[in-house]
UniProtKB/TrEMBL annotation:
Belongs to the oxygen-dependent FAD-linked oxidoreductase family. This is cytokinin dehydrogenase. Signal peptide: none annotated. Residues 71-253 form the FAD-binding PCMH-type domain. It comes from the Eukaryota. Keywords: FAD, Flavoprotein, Oxidoreductase. InterPro entries: Cytok_DH_C_sf, Cytokinin_DH_FAD/cytokin-bd, FAD-bd_PCMH, FAD-bd_PCMH-like_sf, FAD-bd_PCMH_sub1, FAD-bd_PCMH_sub2, FAD-linked_Oxase-like_C, FAD-linked_Oxidoreductases_BP. Gene3D superfamilies: 3.30.465.10, FAD-linked oxidases, C-terminal domain, Uridine Diphospho-n-acetylenolpyruvylglucosamine Reductase, domain 2. Pfam families: Cytokin-bind, FAD_binding_4. One of its GO terms (biological process) is cytokinin metabolic process. It catalyses: N(6)-dimethylallyladenine + A + H2O = 3-methyl-2-butenal + adenine + AH2. The lineage of its organism: Eukaryota, Viridiplantae, Streptophyta, Embryophyta, Tracheophyta. GO terms for molecular function: cytokinin dehydrogenase activity; FAD binding.
Length: 527
């Protein structure tokens, strides 16, 4: 059993089928029933739900903004649920209506292309479940022999999961770079970071899910039970159900982290060394880092990671080469012997620039929460709540050098996008589960994540146009890339994105959300 979770669900399930036989007062809650005719339809909503449905301009505005600040779709109402049953009632009302309205779960709206918005539908503000959880949003169980895990509400933030598990000397194993994201939001995508090459994406470190489907049914699913829903939901872009609980794998946490940045003047040495580090059979397999990513350093890149005394020397390296590539690695440790392991790891590397290895020693929490420090700085400068025309793509290993030449050098550098934050790091397909909805490139064992993470207060279109040119470069060159966290303009593009997974994806949609109610902002079925 799952302790308190079971009783929560049971009380919710106990009302099954009774929603429409309640002594429901006719309430003047108006939904825009059809975006085509804009007919207004009055439907009956249980009073306990109406109290939590907000239609004031403040609530509407908040629900039509996301981290991207590019797409702004207005919902008709926002539900601040005070229980899981509130959400189920909302779904049931739509599902049984002859004019179903769309519903989008909104985690933290850290999407960049309106994925958590619902044009003329209802947005569910998931964070408002916190008071209902009453401190039970994160529950830790298990033991040393069978393993530890946490049962976590879909609305919970990863930073809170980290703090709660660290208090017990435990930690999730797979992360995103930034932790103020929700469990439901990252599991709907994949959840990737420097740990993914070893541990798999976050979606492969989930043991069980509670899902409220597009038919308003509560289902507990695992890799053994209701498997179609389990695999569909993981990486499923919110299309099949709302994740209300996930059981997350935990492991004992280390206390400290050696955090290194190793600089390269050429792409070939950089990617060769990255692939050496992630190789399970190569010379360094005994000293594999716990985390591996990579980034570009260009003339406008911030240098705050490095000691002030080194800035000038780094700047001249950048001036000489235009792009300096850096491998970022981290190893977790408890005792003092870590220096030896780091030295051994560096010995396995061939091509970095001598004298350009920089190391920090920080707590485990400081390391995992590192992007939050950047957030604080950017917020102070007014550079956080501005448009983010992001592009994230997965590039097959065999074409990554072409991508460096054609996109990084010929487009990015040549056109002077030297303030862009660009991540480049390899992942292993063997760590992904083919049965899940998340999409990665076909065939090759290694593929690279390339993230263009720009922010622009006044000119996001310039960055977006550049990104379109990068995608066009890939298309022209026959590079079989896949987008991550992407948006596609047409259904054909989505079909192309899912490739061999489209049939299954579509079938699961027909089974679990046949009225196409959920997460319309992805624009897969609601184009
Ligand atoms: P939202 O944006 O609110 O929702 C995302 C989608 O999931 C929407 O379609 C929504 O309807 C749906 N959804 C939300 N909650 C649920 C639920 N409970 N059940 C079902 N569907 C739901 N991603 C990475 O993988 N790796 C990174 O390193 C990384 N770094 C990031 C850094 C920053 C600064 C930011 C802003 C984002 C980063 N992301 C990263 C992207 C992040 O994973 C996505 O934004 C993701 O959508 C999570 O954000 P969210 O929890 O706010 O979800």
């Amino acid at each position: 059993g799952h302790g308190p979770w079971q009783s929560l669900n049971r009380s919710a399930l106990g009302r099954d089928g009774q929603i429409f036989s309640w002594n429901v007062k006719q309430v003047e809650a108006l939904f825009v029933a059809s975006s085509i005719t804009s007919t207004m339809l009055a439907i009956s909503v249980p009073p306990e739900l109406t109290d939590n449905l907000h239609t004031d301009s403040g609530a509407i505005k908040l629900a039509s903004i996301d981290y991207g600040r590019i797409i702004k779709e207005k919902p008709f109402a926002v539900l601040y649920p005070s229980s899981l049953d509130d959400i189920r009632t909302l779904i049931n009302l739509s599902y049984s209506s002859s004019f179903p309205y769309t519903i989008a779960a909104k985690g933290q709206a850290h999407s960049t292309w309106g994925q958590a918005q619902a044009n003329k539908g209802v947005v569910v503000q998931m964070s408002s479940l916190n008071s209902f959880r009453n401190g039970t949003g994160i529950l830790i169980s298990g033991d040393r022999s069978s393993g530890f895990y946490a049962d976590v509400g879909g609305e919970q933030l990863w930073i809170d999961v980290l703090n709660a598990t660290l208090a017990r000397g435990l930690s999730p194993v797979s992360w995103t770079d930034y932790l103020y994201l929700t469990i439901g939001g990252t599991l709907s995508n994949a959840g990737i970071s420097g740990q993914t090459y070893r541990k798999g994406p976050q979606i492969t470190n989930v043991l069980e899910l509670d899902v409220l489907t597009g038919k308003g049914e509560f289902v507990t699913c695992t890799s053994q039970k209701d498997t179609e829903l389990f695999y569909a939901v993981l990486g499923g872009l919110g299309q099949f159900g709302i994740i209300t609980r996930a059981r997350i794998v935990l492991e004992p946490a280390k206390e400290r982290v050696k955090w290194l940045r190793i600089l390269y003047s050429d792409f070939s040495s950089f990617s060769t060394d990255q692939e050496t580090l992630i190789s399970t059979t190569g010379p360094s397999h005994k000293v594999m880092p716990d985390y591996l990513e990579g980034q570009l350093l260009m003339s406008q890149s911030p240098l705050d990671f490095y000691p002030q005394s080194q800035h000038q020397k780094i700047t001249s390296l950048i001036n000489q080469y235009g792009i300096v590539y850096l491998i970022e690695v981290a190893t977790y440790y408890d005792n003092k012997n870590e220096d030896k392991r780091v030295k051994q790891m560096l010995k396995s590397l061939k091509g970095f620039v001598h004298g350009f290895v920089f190391e920090k020693d920080v707590t485990y929490l400081e390391f995992l929460n590192r992007v939050h420090d950047e957030e604080i700085v950017l917020r102070k400068k007014g550079l956080w709540d501005i448009p983010h025309p992001w592009l994230n793509i997965f590039i097959p290993r065999s074409r990554i050098t072409d991508f460096d030449n054609g996109a990084l050098r010929n487009i990015l550098l040549k056109r002077n996008f030297t303030s862009s934050t660009v991540l480049v790091y390899p992942l292993l397909r063997s760590k992904w589960d083919e049965r899940m909805s998340a999409v990665i490139p076909d065939e090759e064992d290694v593929f690279y994540v390339v993230g263009f993470l720009d922010a622009s207060a006044d000119d996001w279109e310039t960055f977006d146009n550049r990104n379109k040119d990068i995608l066009q470069f890939c298309v022209n060159g026959g590079i079989k890339f896949k987008q991550y966290l992407g948006h596609h303009a047409t259904k054909e593009e989505w079909i192309n994105h899912f490739g061999s997974k489209w049939n299954t994806f579509q079938q699961s949609k027909a089974r679990f959300d046949p009225k196409m109610i959920l997460s319309p902002g992805q624009r897969i079925f609601n184009n």
